[in-house]
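Appendix C. Worked example: Glyoxylate reductase
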Amino acid sequence: MDSPRIFVTRRIAAQALKQLEGRVQMEVWEGSGPPPRAELEARLPHLDGLLSLLTDPLNAEMIALAGPNFRVLSQMAVGTDNIDLAAASARRIPVGHTPGVLTEACADFAMALLLAAARRVVEGDREVRAGIWRPWGPDILVGKDLYGGTLGIVGFGRIGQAVARRAQGFGMRLLVHDLNPDTHLEKCFGIQFVSLPELLRQSDFVSIHVYLSPQTRGMFNAETLGQMKPGAVLVNTARGPIVEPQALQAALESGRLAAAALDVFDPEPIPADSPLLAMPNVIITPHIASAAGQVRLNMAQIAVENLLLGLAGQPLRFCANAAALGPA
Ligand code: 8YV
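Step 2, the predicted output written as structure tokens:
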């Protein structure tokens, strides 16, 4: 019997790809960006498995193209919002993902953005590079104090909790909003669960750590941004569509928000004419919260492990649609 045919949609860590050598017939997309849609459409009917990234649009239409031998979709990411999980489950295709290994790196990055926005690090750097070194003065690039400030964490899963541990070290008071609050965690983390409006009203800084879902899409809109404490800072390392870009722009222009730091945007890449790009108090990074060397290797290795398990018809180590598939 021929070895399984797989397609890897981006060149991932060589150490991880090595584990596939001799076990599968593998093709790796060598482009600098994701493969075009037509490329995926042409390949899917002939594959046994696919190793995908968030940038691959695996909607129901695309999943319907998978051939009769297709038996695993393994995504190198914790999020699977690019994949129609219901369509995959209906075809009994397990969807692998890579939770856990990127938690600490993403929490580090949320803190990096929080610190940079609060203390105007990027603004200072931009000024110096533009040849502007203003003589020291008591009011030059004065930012916001983290110590003694209140951080509102929206979403208290793995990453939200890791942010809470870090923020405690900075002497911050912590408020948390979660759609399913587990009150046992209040004592463990020294946090207080509150409603979203209460969190927005009291927080000097708000960091978003919810999944993208119908409930969280557009969660930060004109109404909720208008409930934020005047002069607050918003950090988004979760998913772009959770924050409405026009509403954010208006909140920054009106001075309701002092600053925003975004690692994700709707859409990605951010349009070149977005007014946010011209605002000195906005930091934008290109979806790199998990981009740390060991983390990327761990993610690639888990994605490969999930892929091999799925090809062998075994349960995946981390399966995003395990509940829908039920017992094997
Ligand atoms: C990844 C992410 O960098 O894992 C996720 O859900 O958003 C990021 O950590 C990226 O999406 C890789 O596909």
